[in-house]
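Anyone up for a design puzzle?
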């Protein structure tokens, strides 16, 4: 039987590129000797994305679409895509053509050679601001240092996963998923292919600083406890410094008459320490917030509509969603 590939594409306000992306993906997929489905996930877009994707799915039986009831975020959108995928392998790709669809055949070859995960590693990034490139570089390296899980650097979510991998991924069911980290955590036979990341084909980034920060905090907090330990490390260092300073102060008090001049050092120490304590409290808060999210156990997303699925699949999806919610 011919194997089937599901291509998952998250969409948030992508009306400017959608048609172009669809054509390029279709071109690539038609040439492969495999069956395929294009699974678009509309993440609560506020522009015409949903109407466009709806029209495409009515005209092309390879296209399926699920639409969220609001914007749930990129990581949740790709998680939903893997929930609804039915292929022997799933490929996750951004809608803006920064991840070239022409890399898909190479991914598929590696998969056919027996690899379970084929991830695309960026050797170069084009058309992004200096800040974006620098912050991404710093983030991947910090995460790499902080965690024991081998999360490859400079690697986004553009990847192929075998069915056995994405079936396991679904079971993890995390509330603030950092998908690329979870896939690394799962293990299996993984391999990288290198590529140069293009500039966005049209439209603007849908990842403002706020979303970038959320993604990096999710990445670090779900894969490392090191920030929590910072308080104890810093505590040890600061008590050492404090002890030495105490000796100096005692010496001054006993043998000199300059103790009143200590006012400015008091203020400095006070500011430094209280700032530090607030930072640590905030860090602990991040972890507690995440524990709270897991305990509430709300479903990760709400689907408002689907297009292009067979009836039986939608019914079983509804059952599946209910099971997830319970
Ligand atoms: N995206 C999404 N929900 C969001 C933000 C982004 O589904 O809340 C999608 C977006 O449509 C694109 C992908 O995630 O397909 C990556 O976003 P973008 O290209 O804007 O991020 P960047 O490449 O600038 O980091
Ligand atoms: Mg992009």
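Challenge accepted. My sequence:
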């Amino acid at each position: 039987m011919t194997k089937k590939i599901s291509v998952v594409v998250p969409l948030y306000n992508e009306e400017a590129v959608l048609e172009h992306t669809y054509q390029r993906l279709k071109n690539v997929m038609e040439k492969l000797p495999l069956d395929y489905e294009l699974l678009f996930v509309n993440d609560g877009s506020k522009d015409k994305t949903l109407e466009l994707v709806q029209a495409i799915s009515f005209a092309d039986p390879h296209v399926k679409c699920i639409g969220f009831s609001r914007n749930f975020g990129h990581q949740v959108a790709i998680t939903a895509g893997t929930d609804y995928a039915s292929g022997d392998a799933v490929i996750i790709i951004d809608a803006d053509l920064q991840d070239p669809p022409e890399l898909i055949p190479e991914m598929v070859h590696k998969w056919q050679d027996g690899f379970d995960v084929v991830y695309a590693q960026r050797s170069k990034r084009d058309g992004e601001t200096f800040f974006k490139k620098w912050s991404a570089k710093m983030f991947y390296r910090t995460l790499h240092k902080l965690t024991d899980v081998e999360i490859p650097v400079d690697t986004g979510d553009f990847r192929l996963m075998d069915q056995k991998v994405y079936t396991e991924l679904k079971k993890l069911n995390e509330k603030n998923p950092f998908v690329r980290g979870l896939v690394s955590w799962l293990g299996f036979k993984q391999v990288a292919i290198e590529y140069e990341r293009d500039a966005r084909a049209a439209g603007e980034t849908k990842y403002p600083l706020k979303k970038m920060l959320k993604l990096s905090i999710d990445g670090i907090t779900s894969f490392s406890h090191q920030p929590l330990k910072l308080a104890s490390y810093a505590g040890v260092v600061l008590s050492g410094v404090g002890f030495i300073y105490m000796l100096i102060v005692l010496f001054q008090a006993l043998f000199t008459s300059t103790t009143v001049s200590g006012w400015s050092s008091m203020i400095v120490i006070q500011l430094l320490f209280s700032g530090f304590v607030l930072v640590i409290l905030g860090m602990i808060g991040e972890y507690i917030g995440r524990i709270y999210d897991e305990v509430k156990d709300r479903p990760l997303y709400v689907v408002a509509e689907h297009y292009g699925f067979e009836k039986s699949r939608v019914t079983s999806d509804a059952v599946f969603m209910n099971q997830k919610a319970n």
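A detail worth pointing out: The beta strands are 4-11, 35-42, 63-68, 89-92, 117-125, 155-162, 190-197, 303-307.
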